[in-house]
């Protein structure tokens, strides 16, 4: 339960009225569930879920050299991004370690919005500011003024179209466009963290309650339900999506996590961490991230040792009993050479060995 000292979302009173259970997450009091997290998970897979993600950070980079600043600061080629498109990328330290994984939206030729994890917002804003020094680019943290609401699931397009009165047929994945819900201007993005089709809505914090209510009303016919952070975690795990602090962190580069594709060595600008990342690309180190499938009902959790013939060969980063698939799934860093699908390993789950097989990620892929 929340300690009462955490920052409250602009939708806090709405969550209280809905009977949410709260947790302290990255300094915020956020709804972890409203009833059954399994029911919320199933709703997103079968219909749609409504998420409050207002704890995320929204940092704007603006000015004639905004694109140059981001090319220097991040591992991606953001200057090649067209207005209205978004890109998944990372902020790395000089030694190549991941300081945060980000989604960057290009709003106009000279303005970008960088969406950071809540726990890393301050660090990301400070690093972007330092790396933009000497360029005509302003770094503005607008997180507290911005609310973020997500609609995720097979019915999400129909719900968003009803709420905005706008067709989303032409809105591609990882693209955004301006829209309106009621009297409010929003940024509508076809992005998400669940493995389903979905949309994220950025809007002024003061208008969050009205927008949530409107989405709830138009979504009722599509079985839209409020969904908390607990099911968001099992949804992203099934979809094989990394979580900062679990699969990503300052002690890992993108290459160990199987995300080396986001590092663009071919862009014109030099960027922080390039020499270390180039070395890691050519010599990827001793561990690699894999998916593991269990056969019983006992799920491995983060920190559980992974064994091969009784010898420790890795450690679980995320694990759960998959609500969709009905068997345990996990991600783990294991010794390179043990990442071939079909490799048989064992996980020590509270002192009891549980057999697992290495499988390709993701565990779940929508049809």
TrEMBL record:
Sorted UniProt keywords: Aminotransferase, Transferase
Coiled-coil positions: none
Pfam families named in the record: GCV_T (PF01571), GCV_T_C (PF08669)
UniProt keyword annotation of Transferase present: yes
Catalytic reactions on record: N(6)-[(R)-S(8)-aminomethyldihydrolipoyl]-L-lysyl-[protein] + (6S)-5,6,7,8-tetrahydrofolate = N(6)-[(R)-dihydrolipoyl]-L-lysyl-[protein] + (6R)-5,10-methylene-5,6,7,8-tetrahydrofolate + NH4(+)
The GCVT N-terminal domain, residue ranges: 11-267
EC number assigned by the record: 2.1.2.10
Main enzyme class: transferase
Keyword Transferase belongs to the record: yes
Gene3D superfamilies hit by this protein: Aminomethyltransferase beta-barrel domains, Aminomethyltransferase fragment, Probable tRNA modification gtpase trme, domain 1
Aminomethyltransferase C-terminal domain sequence ranges: 289-364
Subunit structure: The glycine cleavage system is composed of four proteins: P, T, L and H.
Family per similarity comment: Belongs to the GcvT family.
Function: The glycine cleavage system catalyzes the degradation of glycine.
Protein name according to UniProt: Aminomethyltransferase
Organism encoding this protein: Pseudonocardia ailaonensis
